[in-house]
Amino acid sequence: MEEIKYRKEDEMKDSGIQWLGKIPKQWEEKKLRYISSIETGNKDTQDKVDDGIYPFFVRSDTVESINSYSYNGEAILTAGDGVGVGKVFHYIKGKFAFHQRVYKLSDFKKVKGKYLYYYVSENFHKEVLKLSAKSTVDSLRRPMFSNFIIAHPKELEQQKIANFLDIKTSQFDSIILKKEKLIEKLEEAKKSLISELVTGKVKIVDGEMVERKPEEMKDSGIEWLGMIPKDWKTTKIKNNTYVKGRIGWQGLRSDEFIDEGPYLVTGTDFENNNINWDRCYHVSEKRYKEAPSIHLKNGDLLITKDGSIGKLAIVENCPEKATLNSGIFVTRCTNNEYLTKYMFYLLSSKVFDTYIDIKSTGSTIQHLYQHTFVNFKYTIPYIKEQQVIVEFLNKKIEIIDLLITKTKTQIQKLKEAKQSLISEVVTGKIDLRDWEIREEDVV
Predict the structure, then answer these.
(1) The CATH number of the domain where 290 resides is what?
(2) 20 to 30 A from 213, CA-CA: which of 149, 255, 298, 398?
(3) Phi, psi of 150 (to 5 degrees)
(4) Which 3 state secondary structure label does DSSP give 129?
């Protein structure tokens, strides 16, 4: 592995910019408007098409497509408002279109486009946060962008920096991608394991999974279940489960959220299939009391019904007063026919996913309707076997989840190392003047 060379202290000067710190003495500093044109697009999100010919840059990291182009050349694009402000940057050479609230940098003067891309994508959010009292910024105004200071060396060194970072970031991205695929495989393995057990395809014998024999099975007559054990029953959610959500007229506005009072649970408060109470908003006593049907208690199972549908959380350590925001159902067993954790696993399985896919065919709206949910047909064993299944899954899932958590931590550290490398290179802390591309770097 090649040794990274850092510049000596006496080769550096103070940039005069707090977040930038020291830069090489030979480097220049210019405002962005002097080295690049800055323009916004003329398209709207509704102009996107499926399988379009050209990339269409909108206000997020997702690149859409379109059948006409607005520009042909080298450019950097970034969101002018929305969640991507100061954080999402795209680099492109070729034909593309861009949204009316997306800024395009092009026609570069004495600066290489790829160098500028790395510089702004790493540093611009620091300037944005400096100019704002908030941790996030709603919109990017042209003066904020055009007056942004770009520190840069001569173009030859810029090109070396761009080449170096192309190689190194590609290496980081390759490792990160492999780890992300590992997580996908682990999540799939977890879901498959759960599905095999909650449909009775396998049983637990002396702590081991054993496939049931054909003579132990019967046809459920249900599309998403297939064959099930002969001694298991089929039922629907509505036959044994209390299901309630916040109804329309009880809808809460964000300006009603307060710092103290009864807890208000939203889907974003779900964390590792539990509720992070410290993250919850609060509501007034009046708002809490007007919806007694969704007051929470320990043992309740919550499921999201909007956006990312099917996220689950079991209520534990419930405060004395807690309620739901829109977008969530509270469920609880009404006849002791199932264990809450068993239902949790059932709703985590491919069986439930398949049911939702079948019922939502042809719909573009991501929403779990109550009538769809309560009519979900499933199969269930007696409580004693449920307990065996739950205990087995608890142990197996814990092992898989630990590996997923470990892999996610590794990914986060890799991303931090990648960003740190970019930062040190584009601010001149790392000296690349003598660096040359080696054959092993590009294999």
Answers:
(1) 3.90.220.20
(2) 398
(3) -110, 120
(4) helix
List Cα–Cα distances, 153 to 89, 150, 386, 427, in angstroms.
22, 10, 67, 10
Q: How far apart are CA 106 and CA 77, in angstroms?
A: 9
Q: Are residues 266 and 366 in the same domain?
A: yes
Q: Which amino acid is at 432?
A: L
374 Cβ contact list (under 8 Å, min separation 6): 236, 237, 238, 241, 243
- For the record, the structure tokens of 64 come out as 């859409």
DSSP structure string for 310-365: T-EEE--S--SSEEE-TTEEEEEESSS-S-HHHHHHHHTSHHHHHHHHHHTTT---
Q: Over the stretch 293-327, which tens digit does the pLDDT of each residue have?
A: 999 999 999 999 987 889 999 999 999 999 999 89
Shared domain check, 158 and 19: yes
Q: Could you say which DSSP state residue 23 is in?
A: E
Q: How many domains does the chain have?
A: 3
Check residue 86 and give left, alpha or beta (phi > 0: left; psi -120 to 50: alpha).
left
Q: Residue 145: which of 104, 98, 92, 100 has the closest Cα?
A: 104
> Is 216 inside any structural domain?
no
AA letter at 318: C
How far is Cα 256 from Cα 264, in angstroms, rounded to an integer? 11
Indicate if 332 and 238 belong to the same structural domain: yes
Choose the final residue of a domain: 350, 380, 410. Answer: 380
Identify the three-state secondary structure at position 231: coil
Task: Using the predicted structure, report yes or no on whether residue 443 has a pLDDT greater than 60.
Answer: no
Question: Do residues 22 and 163 share a domain?
Answer: yes
Interval 99-154: pLDDT, tens: 999 999 999 999 999 999 999 999 888 877 666 545 555 678 888 889 999 999 99
